[in-house]
Recover the amino acids of this structure.
């Protein structure tokens, strides 16, 4: 006898399945924070480390999925790279073990050897790192990758490229050392507010301590990546700094990198106050002249950024120079934000600093830059120049 | 004597709108599938955006450079078009009602649309505020949200009450009302998946993967669209199954729909959180679906009426299942098998290639098509056209009128 399948039975089975689905995908209550598998490991670096940029400027920007291919062409253009693929397998394995001994694994991240000051300043306490790693896995990995290499699963399909933490150079930096490394607060600010005009979202609705812990985990990945890059470079070097023992390389590189990060945590130059900013026609005219002469801006921002000009960033990838006639600034459009970028440059993008400008000149230059996107704010003679 | 063909349950424009809606929804599902396959759901973290965002800004983005952004925004654009067509369908469907029903139905549809539009506008203001004041307390447009929810509830109530009546075409009208609400919910799920992405997976907040719910709900919405398109068609008495066939196939056809939907639940789970349990369930349910489908096909083809009424549908189902199995194997291989340095990474963290993303998307799309096909079969099995339920094999060829 054939048993009939009833409508009620089918509905009940579907309902049960839906409940199981919701439970399994996250409705399981307060214990559902994702964590890395205990067996997870940081993948060894596979992409080349840029040791020296080519002497000439790039003329185009590769598609996001072609980043590594592009970097491998740099030697042909006069640059220099250290390709981890050339490392003997045994050396690669020793390096991985040495790095793991200091930095642990994704499930149990550590920074063994960091003193109490560094742990406090950089939020590197193991419990906080472990908790943040789970959040990073859910919210950040798809773009930034497990090792913070900016090569997550979808990185090949988004532009601007996600940040590669391993260079240790970030764009928002307000520390006193101006070494390209951000303060912990800078990373928190970026996480809180996102980066306008990019795929970097805001994380403004999650608790402040979780954001801070995530910033600490970003620093953990950055330090690890920097140490790895330096050791790979030295293992492949044939110069005076050549190295044979990866563990020794990690022992030497780690304190230096950590010290640089700690130093970067000192708040930046308080004298960089640009208020009140007088955006008078005379100030804008003076700023325009500074843009063309002493400021040196026009060397890269040709036609006020309207020209397709590219410059290498620290990763060896071409960046299009900022279009200044559009009112979009990814890192803030307040006078103080722009002042900081002009005065101290953007090391991550290889934008030079301008220590030669006086405070008054800086204010004039800011007045011009802030008026640039709005033709009505420019004096007639300056507007004609800009619109040429 | 030529049997009389029953008149349409609803006007022809309703059928046209329903078909158009289902076709655009296929495009929407494809773009949604690509967005998930290429992990582009957060390529643009800004939501809400205007419906014409891509028209105004699209020229800035090259496919090679901004593929993720374009996938996500074309998905949003297709969503807007589907929303517009669902609104149009509801309006033309309720326009066909009579007397007070028409007035109440249309008033509710327009009220719902106005409230939803205002909610969307105010959410854009919220986003602008958030971006300018990160971390500051946000005032959400709760009053408008409640008003929208109230109109949605009223729409559902009107539809249920309408179903209790005896007016011709009530199912199409009611389903078009349900569909409008469902499309709006689906749009909000997609939007809030972006807006609240940061809360996903946290210990003390959202907890549910909104993107996964968005994927599951999409299947239900599309299934409803298919139902409306089928029910809005002119009834064909020759497609009425004899009661004996209906009894033999009725439960089985519903079981197939349930199994396919279940399978799609596991599929969404595998796509968004590929746990071992999700994979096991997806594999095992594939056998169940295949078994039920074969059982149904054999039964359907065992009688002349079954062959006449369901012949094309079951052949179509067999073909898609065959393709789906091949795609499933390939999709699993591209997602879970790895060589070289990627072996050190879990599957969800490996780079996605164009080929693997395309295969996964196609697998998802065919899965949805299998669900739609099984729903069509179930509808054909259960539907009575009102021509007296004459055995199909006893009917002479039908003369086509108008």
């Amino acid at each position: 006898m054939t048993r009939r399948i009833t409508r009620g039975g089918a509905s009940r089975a579907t309902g049960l399945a839906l409940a199981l689905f919701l439970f399994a995908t996250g409705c399981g209550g307060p214990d559902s924070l994702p964590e890395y598998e205990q067996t997870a490991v940081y993948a060894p670096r596979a992409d080349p480390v840029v040791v020296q940029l080519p002497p000439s400027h790039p003329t185009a920007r590769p598609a996001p999925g072609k980043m590594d291919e592009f970097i491998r062409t740099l030697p042909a253009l006069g640059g220099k790279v250290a390709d981890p693929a050339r490392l003997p397998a045994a050396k690669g394995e020793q390096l991985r073990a040495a790095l793991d001994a200091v930095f642990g694994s994704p499930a149990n991240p550590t920074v063994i050897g960091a003193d109490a000051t560094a742990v406090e300043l950089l939020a590197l306490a193991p419990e906080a790192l472990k908790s943040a790693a789970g959040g990073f896995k859910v919210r950040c990995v798809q773009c930034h990758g497990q090792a913070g290499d900016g090569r997550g699963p979808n990185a090949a399909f988004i532009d601007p490229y996600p940040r590669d933490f391993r260079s240790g150079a970030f764009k928002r930096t307000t520390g006193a050392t101006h070494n390209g490394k951000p303060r912990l607060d800078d990373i928190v600010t970026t996480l809180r507010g996102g980066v306008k005009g990019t795929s970097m979202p805001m994380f403004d609705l999650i608790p402040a301590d979780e954001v801070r812990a995530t910033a600490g985990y970003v620093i953990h990945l950055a330090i690890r990546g920097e140490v790895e890059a330096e050791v790979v470079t030295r293992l492949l070097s044939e110069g005076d700094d050549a190295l044979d023992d990866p563990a020794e390389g990690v022992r030497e590189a780690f304190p230096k990198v950590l010290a640089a990060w700690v130093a970067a945590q000192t708040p930046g130059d308080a004298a960089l106050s640009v208020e009140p900013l007088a955006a008078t026609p005379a100030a804008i005219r003076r700023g325009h002249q500074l843009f063309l002469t002493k400021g040196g801006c026009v060397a890269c921002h040709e036609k006020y950024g309207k020209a397709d000009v590219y410059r290498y960033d620290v990763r060896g990838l071409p960046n299009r120079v900022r279009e200044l006639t559009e009112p979009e600034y990814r890192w803030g459009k307040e006078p103080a934000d722009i002042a900081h970028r002009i005065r101290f440059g953007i090391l991550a993008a290889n934008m030079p600093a301008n220590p030669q400008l006086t405070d008054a000149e800086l204010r004039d230059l800011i007045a011009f830059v802030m008026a640039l996107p709005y033709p009505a704010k420019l004096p007639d003679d300056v507007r004609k120049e800009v619109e040429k | 004597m030529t049997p009389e063909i029953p008149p349409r349950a609803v006007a022809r424009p309703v059928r046209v709108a329903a078909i158009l809606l289902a076709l655009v929804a296929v495009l929407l599902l494809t773009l949604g599938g690509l967005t998930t396959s290429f992990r582009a759901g957060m390529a643009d973290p800004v939501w809400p955006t205007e419906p014409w965002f891509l028209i105004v800004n699209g020229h800035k983005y090259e496919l090679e450079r901004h593929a993720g952004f374009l996938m996500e925004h074309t998905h949003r654009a297709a969503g807007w078009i589907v929303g517009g067509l669902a609104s149009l369908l509801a309006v033309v469907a309720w326009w066909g009602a009579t007397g007070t029903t028409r007035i109440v139905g249309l008033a509710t549809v327009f009220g719902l649309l106005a409230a939803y539009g205002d909610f969307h506008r105010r959410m854009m203001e919220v986003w602008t505020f958030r971006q300018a004041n990160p971390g500051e307390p946000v005032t959400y447009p709760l009053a408008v949200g409640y008003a929208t929810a109230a109109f949605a509830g009223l729409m559902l109530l009107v539809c249920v009450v309408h179903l209790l009546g005896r007016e011709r075409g009530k199912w199409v009208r009611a389903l078009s009302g349900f569909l409008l609400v469902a499309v709006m919910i689906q749009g909000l799920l997609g939007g809030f998946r972006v807006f609240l992405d940061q809360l996903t997976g946290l210990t003390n907040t959202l907890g549910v993967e909104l993107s996964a719910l968005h994927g599951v709900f999409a299947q239900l919405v599309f299934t409803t669209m298919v139902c409306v398109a089928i029910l809005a068609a002119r009834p064909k008495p020759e497609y009425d199954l004899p009661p004996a066939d209906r009894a033999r196939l009725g439960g089985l056809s519903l079981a197939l729909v349930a199994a396919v939907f279940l399978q799609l639940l596991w599929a969404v789970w595998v796509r968004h959180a590929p746990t071992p349990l999700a994979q096991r369930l997806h594999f095992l349910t594939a056998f169940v679906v295949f078994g039920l489908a074969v059982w149904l096909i054999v039964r359907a083809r065992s009688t002349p009426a079954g062959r006449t009424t369901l012949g094309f549908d079951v052949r179509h189902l067999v073909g898609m299942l065959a393709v789906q199995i091949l795609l499933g194997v390939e999709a699993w291989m591209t997602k879970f098998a790895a060589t070289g340095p990627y072996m050190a990474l879990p599957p969800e963290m490996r780079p996605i290639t164009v080929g693997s993303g395309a295969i996964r998307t196609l697998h998802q799309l065919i899965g949805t098509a299998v669900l739609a096909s099984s729903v069509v079969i179930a509808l054909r099995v259960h539907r009575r056209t009102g021509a007296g339920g004459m055995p199909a094999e006893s009917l002479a060829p039908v003369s086509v009128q108008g």
Notes: Confidence is low (pLDDT under 50) at residues 26-33 of chain A. Chain A touches chain B through 66 residues (CB under 8 Å). The first helix of chain A runs from residue 7 to 24. The beta strands of chain A are 49-52, 80-82, 310-312, 318-320.
